[in-house]
Write a structure and sequence with these properties.
Length: 312
């Protein structure tokens, strides 16, 4: 379990993290979302005990990170931003070193090392200096050190940053496989990642917590939620047919791809009416869909008013 209480970090008069409180329970994969400079890494560093808060507190599995650092760190696996490691070491030497400082020994040490090497498919690069590995393998080494002692709490700062689509998929699969009994917090800019791995999302911007909800709940805040969009060669005819429907509030055409979207009046279902109206007017549809909502639009509308001012 992770609990932060009014967690705050000031650099001079600048509040990088401003009064953030939340609690994460086992089984939750919490996506930490926010624009550049929002305060995500700073918050994670304070939970991981790498940075002292200016005020407020963080607990890991009930242990205060500042007053009980050993117990808190024992319960925690942390992948810092950029997955730093000792570049001149090989993955075998580096992970052996991490196993030693984590206090693993004997059969358990061997078992845990075998487990992470297998999970992250590191066997082929064990003897190659980390600084010569590809970005994807460097990130896997970073993840391996974070999960080596099988901690109940994982904090992963942009775990898929810079990876190719296949590697992203592998890391997301790994996170999903570990999610059942652990508390996992990941930070990301990638909104599709939230749907792929998270069952809860927190949006922060300007150091402040602005939203805390399940991804589907956030999508439901989108003005596209329950809208109907379609493509057709007969744009004007379709627009006219939909504009007259009583439960349709407005109709928009995307200037880039000519996609037509009909927005419902509050609380109205318009899918059947849209489909019937197009049929009645003889409009040939290429494709039509009911929208669940667009996370990118929700993200923008929540974070834009809190964009940081340029500091001098
Ligand atoms: N040591 C420091 N001294 C002064 N300001 C800092 C320091 N570390 C971070 N900041 C500032 O605090 C703010 C939050 O930074 P942080 O790295 O937590 O953001 P982030 O949400 O992780 O951003 P990104 O997505 O770009 O990694 C930024 O404006 C950053 O410039």
């Amino acid at each position: 379990m992770i609990e932060t209480s009014a967690l705050t970090k000031h650099y001079g008069r600048f509040a990088a993290v401003d009064n953030i409180s939340f609690r994460v329970e086992p089984g939750q994969v919490l996506g930490f979302l926010g624009p550049n400079g929002a305060g995500k890494s700073t918050t994670m560093k304070m939970i991981a005990g790498f940075l002292a808060p200016t005020s407020g507190s963080a607990k890991v599995c009930g242990f205060d990170v500042e007053s009980r650092p050993m117990e808190a760190k024992r319960a925690l696996g942390y992948l810092p931003e950029g997955a730093p490691a000792y570049g001149e070491m090989t993955p075998r030497a580096f992970l052996g070193f991490v196993a030693d400082i984590r206090g693993l020994a004997g059969e358990e040490r061997r078992r845990r090392l075998d487990d992470v090497l297998g999970r992250l498919q590191l066997e082929g690069v064990l003897e190659q200096p980390i600084e010569t590995l590809s970005k994807g393998f460097k990130r896997r080494v970073g993840l391996a050190q974070a999960i080596l002692h099988d901690p109940p709490v994982l904090i992963l700062d942009e775990p898929t940053d810079g990876l190719d689509p296949n590697q992203k998929h592998e890391v997301r699969t790994l996170i999903n496989a570990m999610a059942k009994n652990k508390v996992i917090v990941i930070s990301t800019h990638i909104l599709e990642e939230v749907n792929a791995v998270c069952n809860r999302a927190i949006i922060i911007a300007g150091g402040k917590l602005l939203a805390d909800a399940a991804p589907a709940e956030l999508e439901a805040r989108s003005r596209y939620h329950m809208a109907v969009s379609l493509t057709t060669a007969e744009t004007d005819k379709a627009k006219q047919a939909l504009g007259g429907l009583p439960d349709v509030e407005s109709v928009e055409v995307d200037p880039l791809d000519q996609r037509i979207t009909a927005f419902p009046r509050r609380g109205k279902q318009i899918l059947a009416a849209v489909s019937d109206a197009l049929k009645a007017q003889g409009v040939a549809i290429r494709e039509l869909q009911l929208e669940t909502g667009r996370l990118d639009e929700v993200f923008r509308s929540i974070t834009q008013p809190h964009a940081r001012e340029v500091r001098v």
